[in-house]
Amino acid sequence: MWEYLLLGGGYAFAAVIQPGPLQAFMLASVTRVGWKRTLPAALAPIVSDGPIILGVVFLLGWLPEGWTGWLRAAGGVFLLYLAWSSFRQWQGGPVEAAEEDKPPRTLLQAVVVNLLNPAPYLAWSLVLGPALVEAWGQSPGFGIALLAAFYGILTLGNALVIVAFGATGYLDPKTRHNLILVSAVFLAGLGVFQLWKGLAGR
What is the pLDDT of residues 29-65, one digit of tens each? Predict the structure, then answer.
């Protein structure tokens, strides 16, 4: 079970730290309407990912035996790519966070932003989906543990980011810069592990 808790929680931590459409919209929303009205946006991934998870798991169920291992290996390569991208971003030095012109003011708008973001589709197709199928095959409790770790850390992390934006105006650029390096290390470790698991299962 610890393997799936680490994968879900580690990937969620990296997703919170990495700049993306949802993070940019949350920041812009805080500056416009305040952190209290923006806080429900932290739940957007839980609401929007349901159809994505069901679709991916359904498709994985139709794949021939052995393909899950290849997908896990591909997911490992994808995580290593994300780690390298994060490291390159960290090398560029601290930068101020950018604002969006039209932030979402409701949970529904945040859900739409997340549905239009390619990251959840890649994550569930290459990383979390194959791991969920494998975990559920061992024990439904393992699958639930992966989901709980991922969405627990993701929701709590997004909420903390929103509150931090509201309390300080912005996260300190140097702090964000250092956290990006931490997320790069997390992603690299998860990528190597996923690649090894995928190839070992062949």
Answer: 776 677 888 889 899 999 888 888 888 888 877 766 6
Q: For the chain, which residues make up each domain, given as ranges?
A: 2-200
Structure tokens at 90: 């960290």
- Cα distances from 163 to residues 15, 44, 82, 135, in angstroms, run 17, 16, 26, 33
Structure tokens at 57: 């798991």
Q: What is the pTM of this model?
A: 0.72
Q: Which of 5, 1, 37 is nearest to 153 (CA)?
A: 5
Query: How far, rounded to the nearest angstrom, does the alpha carbon of residue 38 sit from its chain's CA centroid?
Result: 19
Tell me how far apart the alpha carbons of residues 201 and 5 are, in angstroms, rounded to a whole number.
Answer: 20
Cβ within 8 Å of residue 79, ≥6 positions away: 11, 127, 187, 188, 190, 191, 194
Cβ atoms 179, 161 nearer than 8 A: no
